Prior knowledge:
The complex is a heterodimer. Chain A is mostly helical.
Amino acid sequence: MTRDLLLKGIQNIFRDIFDEDNLVIEDSTNSGEIEDWDSLNHINLISAIEKEYKIKFNLGELIALKNVGAMIDLMIEKLKNT
Amino acid sequence: MKSYKFADIKVGLEETFFIKINSEKVEKFLEISGDSNPLHTDSQYSKSKGFLNKVVYGMLTSSFYSTLVGVYLPGKYCFLQGIDIQFSKPVYIGDILKISGKVSYINEAYKQVEIKAFMMNQDNIKISKATIKVGIIDE
């Protein structure tokens, strides 16, 4: 799966979780830029991504993430192994 | 009360309990919520709208989803984080409800568990279903 496809895919998940149909995310997007990106929505976001892409994250990996781009990098690594 | 810890919880784990809806529960819900809509309080009105009798509050029956997670699955260590409910059939006073839930997904990193739940009445008709997200606070 290409990086662009992943970005589009998780953008749809972001739009659903944050109830913003026109939300556009990019590699540099982080939790400070989306008003409702609180701890509970973060858990919901990770759960939705895990279910959609059939991958699992561990806490250490998630703590290290700084933005959407880092999340996509991690996803690409995990999807290589599935 | 059940007290499943995170390590005990696996996808497919199920719990079920039963409850009878009586007029006392409905009256208490009216007192607590202030929802005096005639659909719930006036049988003549509810019958005129095509129902068999006064309709029991959907949010009263939904409170048993709280019981499901808070007492049965996972029980003691539950922290309710979200619930999405759909109602499909009306409930009436005297109905006996079977409330069931099954673990459908586990977020290992954040100790969040998703439970697919539903309620059936005494005629084996599904009256609602729910997707419930709970945190496990076992540490």
